[in-house]
Amino acid sequence: MNMAQARRLCHFSFASAPHGHGPSVPSVRAGEGRGTSQQRSGLTETGQATDLFHGDAFARRRENLMLTPRLHNSRRNGFSLVEILIVVIILGILSAMVIPQFSSATSESQQRNIQAQLQSLNNTVELYRSQRRGAFPNFATDGWGSPSDVSDPNTRSLVGLRYLKEAPRHPRFATGDANATAIQVVTGTARGHATAGWVWNSTDREVYASFFNETSVLMTSTATD
User: Fold this and answer.
1) For the chain, which residues make up each domain, given as ranges?
2) For the residues 64-79, what does the mean pLDDT come to?
3) Are 152 and 180 spatial neighbours (Cβ–Cβ below 8 Å)?
């Protein structure tokens, strides 16, 4: 006989006994029922606690999800003072590095431009002289000349006689400045003029550029070198 059969037999004996014959003893099943009820009550309380725990966790997670976009949005709406200062410092460093190089490149470009033009102009003057029986262009009267001078039989200008397509322009002068294409006649050791981009030195019979040192091939602050 196993334990379950013994409990059922005991329960049957007490239940079938007449009234007044000994104290009534609660059945084992009744005890088991009460134990089951208590267990169920405990499980119910545990379930409620579990639900409350999960509910709190869900609420906290929901608050975090609601706060996170706000933090990101506030981050996107502007920059901090430190970030702005870093950008300003970087721009300052780049400016200090790039601007001098740009200025140097511009100056070197102007110097090469003038040097190339002087070589071409003096070669043109030499060609004019060789074709005009040793005569030189009349810079004092005609300057560089103009295309309309071609109809003038007395012209001695390089543009008028089509040795040049147009008057050369000195790159140091501003665009539209008439002095950039002007030429003045000088003598002696002068090699420039304050109000003209070019000079014709009648002493050594050569074209020079103002504000330019032909020996060092550098731009200068002095017009006459």
Assistant:
1) 108-219
2) 57
3) no
